[in-house]
Structures are given as structure tokens and as C-alpha cells.
Amino acid sequence: MTSFRGGSSSGAAKPRQHDRDARGGRGPRAGRPAHDPARMAAYQALLAVHRDDAYANLVLPGLLREAGLFGRDAAFATELTYGTLRARGTLDMIIAAAADRDISRIDPPARDALRLGAYQVLHTRVPAHAAVASTVDLVHSVAPGAAGFANAVMRRIAERDLDAWLAQVAPSEQDDPVGHLAVTENHPEWIVRAFREALGGDLAETAQLLGADNDRPEVHLCARPGRSDAIDLADAVGGQPGAFSPYAVYLGGGSPGELVEIKTGRAHVQDEGSQLVASALIDAPLEGQDERWLDLCAGPGGKAGLLAALAAQRGAHLTAVEVTEHRAKMVANAVRGLPATVVCTDGRSVGADRDLPEGGFDRVLVDAPCTGLGSLRRRPESRWRRQPSDLPPLTKLQRELITAALRAVRPGGLVAYVTCSPHLVETQVSVTEAVRRSGLDVEFVDARASLPAGMPGLGDGPTVQLWPHRHGTDAMFLALLRRKA
After folding, report:
1. Which of 218, 356, 366 lies closest to 304 in space, CA to CA?
2. Are 398 and 426 spatial neighbours (Cβ–Cβ below 8 Å)?
3. Do 408 and 471 form a contact (C-beta atoms < 8 A)?
4. Average of per-residue pLDDT across 43-72
5. Is the pLDDT confidence value at 16 over 80?
6. Could you give the C-alpha distances from 355 to 134, 407, 412, in angstroms and in order?
7. CA 429, 397, 485, 280 torsion: positive or negative?
8. Which residues are annotated as catalytic?
9. Tens digit of each residue's pLDDT (9 = 90 or more) over 382-432
């Protein structure tokens, strides 16, 4: 049974080309209306991301519905939106070079329209003349005074292909290999350096990872244990069972939110990597009682939903903690009908909150807030939004949550520290520092043993780092800890 309790609150490939012919890119001069619905939806999504700090995956579906876009037109708008967001940094360098002015000196409405136009010219099969004309039409409708400027800039961009522009704006590969990768693979340089460090300095593999970040990811579904299984779900939705998680299904496209299996709670959308790290906590051997499970940072509810479904099969009960009320409501929806209690409180309040007694749980999941650098392929705007200055407050919070989890678990119990980032400061440093400062007797358990047998590329242990280019998952990190006393 699910209940909800309120509480205190505190704080290696290039981008895929879109398979669209000349007719798909035609502008008003070929009989298409001046306000092209697909391009306008993409523009509005970019505007929301850059003006309101919105996330494209949250705003774009509503914009597509409002515009009545389906099928090829919806796919085109989606490709324009996500492709432009992924390539923004490099597009900005090219636009600035073509305009002979810093990108910050271009008015935001015209700037976003130019980004869309440059993406079409350099990354899609839309004919250059159609991309230029449609961009000028878009600028004329959103920033009329800049239409002539946009026309001149777009024509200059269309004079060269992508490789020629990269040769002009990217640093030399020989003199500055990291800077070169940052520009050619559309990532900020500090992220490229962090990824290379996490990959042991291997620049070639770093390039593979960056390329995987630029590929459009498949939708992953999680078949809820006890309500569905991967084979039946794959047959029902026209997908295929995942490579590693026994609950995963890969969905080629479409709108997963419209699936009856999602609406009825038989499945939910969740990256296979998230499924693997959550289920690893439950699959790890545990001596003694195994009835009280805790998800210390449960919002928005994907891992809590999987854990609660597993709890129903194993006679356990999940306490799901979320600090913000609106996300706690999302968690409550995710675990509805399952043996779970949702508590809206700060996960660091272990021992001070009656719902979070010290030593009160057998298994604890800490899916800590992080930079999200492991899911840049799914949230491409994050690569330009995040900054190195985000790390200190996040890692402090991560250490505090791990420490709280170690207090919450009973002696002999297990804690899984999970984060969707490969940044070493958020992974190895956070967990080792938290264990050192906890004052408790804690040992690392080899997490590889709790992942599917034969899964490649798991490293030397005891922690595990998953990767998009190795496993086809988000870059999820997992550390398993056993409290000894």
C-alpha cells in the first residue's frame, strides 16, 4: 500500500543526419507558409531552454501537440531541437565567425534562429538554399529588424561545409587535442578533460564517448517486475529486450507516454543503466532480515518504482524519501499500489526524523543529486548549462547523503551509492571521503558481482562505471557498501 506523508522541506559518430529531402526543407518561396510549424516548434523549445532554463524533453512534447505535429514533421522538429542543443557551442563559434561578432552581441531571438539555421545547413540534408530561406523567414517573424543580418550570416555559413568550418574554428589537434575534441565533438572543454580523466587518460576512448553522447539515444523502458516482463513488453510495444537488464526494453521511437503499458503501470521509462544500478542493490547477497528498504533520494521515482515492484515480490517494504513536495508527489504516483511509503523530508535527517531511524533499514539506495554529466545524450542542453563551479556544493551534499545512508542502514546491511556522472570528484572522491568521515566500520563490496554475468567493460572493481559507448547506457556509477558495525 502506498501512503504519502508531508514533512519539512529543504533545500564515435557525428550527430545523426536527418533523413529529409528537399521537399521537407522547402520554405515560403516554394509554397510553404512563412510560419513553418516544425521549425517554429523547435525555435520555441530553444527559447524556453535558453530563456527559462527549461529542459527540452519536458517542453517539446507539449509544443508538438499544440502545433498538431506528428510523424515526419514531429521527428524533424525533434531532430532540430536536440541536434541544435547538442551542437550549440560549436554552432556559436561558426555563427560568430560568419557574423564577425561575438555571439553574445547577437540578440537572443535572432541567435536561436541562426543556431537552428546553421544546424540545418551543416548537419542535415535540408538543402542550403531552403535552410537559408526558412531561417530568414523565421527571423523576420521573431526579430524583424535582424532579417537582413540573418540573411547575410546564413549565406556565409552555407558557403562551406562542416569540415571546412571546423578547420577554421577548432584548435589544432596536434597542439591542443582536448580543445580540438571539444569543438569537433560539441562538448565544453572542462567536460572533455573530466571524461578523459575518468577513462584513465585514454584520448581515443574519450572521443568514442563524446561521439556516443552526440548520437540520438533509444528510449529504454523498464518492465515492472510482477506486472510485466521484458519479452512480453517488447512484443506489445514493438521493441526488443535489453542487452543487460532483465527488465529493459529498447523502443526505437514514438511517444512512450502514450503507451497503454505506461499508463497502466506495467512499465515506465527508465534508462537501462538506472535499472542495473538499482537492481544491483537488491541482487547483492545480504545476511539476516531483508524487509526494510530505503530510497533516500527518490525523486522523480523511476528507481523507486522498480525497487517497490521488487519489494512486492520479496516481502519487503520501501520507504521513499524526497525533499521537494512536487517531486514527492511524482514518487507517490510511481509507487502507487506497491508496498511503499513516500516521505517528504530531507534525506540527511536520519535519526532526527521518526520515519528515518538510525540502523532501521536493511538496504539503502542513495541516488544522489549530481551534475548529470552521465546523461548528456538525453539532456543535451546540460552540457552547456553545467559549470565546474557546480561541483563543490553537489559533492558536499553527496557526502552528507552517503553518511546519512550509512547511519540509516543496520550493521550487516547494504548501501548503494549511485550517481549519473562519471566525474571522478562525484564518484570515487565523494564515496571514499564519505566513508572516511563517517566514523563507521564500512567495507566496499565488489559491485561487479551484482551485475549480469558476462557484462563487459566493468573495470577492476570494486566500484563500477557504466558508459554510453561501452554499454549503451547512461554513464551511471555504482558503489556498494556494507556497514560492518
Report:
1. 366
2. yes
3. no
4. 95
5. no
6. 58, 13, 20
7. negative
8. 420
9. 999 999 999 999 999 999 999 999 999 999 999 999 999 999 999 999 999
